[in-house]
Write a structure and sequence with these properties.
It contains twelve helices and nine strands. It has helices at residues 15-26, 53-59, 79-99, 123-130, 135-140, 160-163, 167-178, 223-226, 241-261, 268-272, 280-291, 305-324; strands at residues 33-40, 43-50, 64-70, 108-112, 152-155, 182-190, 200-204, 230-240, 299-300. Helix 3 crosses helix 12, helix 4 packs across helix 12 (305-324) and helix 9 (241-261) packs across helix 11 (280-291).
Length: 338
């Protein structure tokens, strides 16, 4: 019997992870995918462009531009590093706006997706709490607005389980009334890598689908639906139990191989058996086949998520404040955040 692995595919919302998986499956770099990697001071930035539909199909990602900022040190709660990441994010985001042809004075609507009552899903609402909102000043007292600011509004529409309304319907109504030039949607994602949880920020110009972090299929926030450019910002805050188990096999194999290299009489295959001969997708399929019927393929987040989510939300909010308002700089940014 041949196991159908399609339903057991690795769950990830990150373009860099999709690229890693696709290259493993297809045996090398994919035509139609351009990648540029830059690393400095513990901050790794990957710029990934999916150029055609053929590459999109192999990657499982919509054609578009993706930027991934990876900073493993963010878990150390280093405030100086957080400031550097905010600046790096602002630089990349500003370049992203220029690439998309967004004018400096364009009106922006920030949408914080997620459930503020569930910590791993509260990223969007937390960012909304800390961004600099200015639209009401432009509406009520435009003559008193200093140069270097643009009209920015924000909304945390909640989740359908609380409001009974799709987030995209709420946003669509706001877009029709306020007519922003740009939408910035922020949501929690899922990752296949434990190291990337709460340490990675993805920016994409393809829009976003609420609930994507836990596999829910909802009406999206995209340019096609809303009529204006929609930039997605996401942070992986969860992964699946099957992903963790699968990663543990890799860690164990690496550990036993190192002991064997160091002269220890440990035979990896004797301990892990046939698991060493399975591909990652085959091994994940086996793990899910065991866990899913029992209802044990849980969605998991680190126990320190309360601290992590606050830190990463502040980094994104600070970065957006720097990128959207020329008058804001790192010295005065604390005046705008709570």
């Amino acid at each position: 019997m041949t196991l159908d692995l399609q339903k057991y595919s690795v769950r990830t919302d990150l373009a860099v992870e999709s690229r890693e998986l696709a290259e493993t499956i297809h045996g090398g770099p994919l035509p139609g995918v351009q990648e540029q990697v830059e690393e400095q001071d513990g901050i790794k930035i990957t710029r990934l462009d999916v150029l055609d539909e053929a590459a999109s199909a192999k990657l499982g990602r919509i054609k578009g531009h993706y930027i991934t900022i990876e900073v493993p040190g963010l878990r150390g709660q280093d405030s100086e590093l957080q400031d550097k990441v905010a600046e790096a994010f602002a630089k990349e985001f500003s370049g992203f706006l220029n690439k998309l042809g967004i004018a400096r004075g364009a009106k922006a609507l920030i949408v914080g997706l997620g459930n503020w009552n569930v910590t791993p899903d509260a990223l969007g609402p937390l960012v909304v709490e800390n961004v600099l909102i200015t639209r009401h000043y432009f509406e009520l007292t435009p003559d008193r607005v200093s140069p270097g600011y643009r009209p920015v509004s924000a909304i945390a529409p909640g989740v359908m389980g609380i409001t009974g309304i799709e987030s995209s319907e709420v946003v669509q109504g706001i877009v029709e009334r306020t007519k922003p030039d740009l939408i910035i949607a922020i949501d929690a994602l899922a990752s296949r890598s434990l190291e990337r949880i709460n340490t990675t920020i993805q920016i994409a110009d393809i829009g976003i689908h609420p609930g994507s972090g836990i596999g829910n299929k909802r009406r999206g926030l995209t340019r096609e639906i809303l009529g204006v450019p929609c930039i997605a910002i996401g942070v992986p805050t969860v992964c699946y139990a099957s992903t963790i188990v699968n990663n543990v096999f890799d860690m164990m194999k690496t550990h036993f191989d190192q002991e064997q290299d160091d002269g220890q009489q440990v035979q990896t295959k004797q301990i892990l058996g046939l698991l060493t001969e399975l591909s990652e997708s085959e091994r994940l399929g086996l793990v899910k086949e065991v866990l899913e019927p029992l209802g044990h393929d849980l969605i998991v987040t680190p126990k320190e998520i309360d601290e992590f989510i606050e830190d990463i939300a502040n980094v994104i909010a600070n970065g957006l404040n720097l990128a959207l308002h020329e008058a804001v700089n790192q010295e005065n940014i604390s005046a705008y955040t709570h």
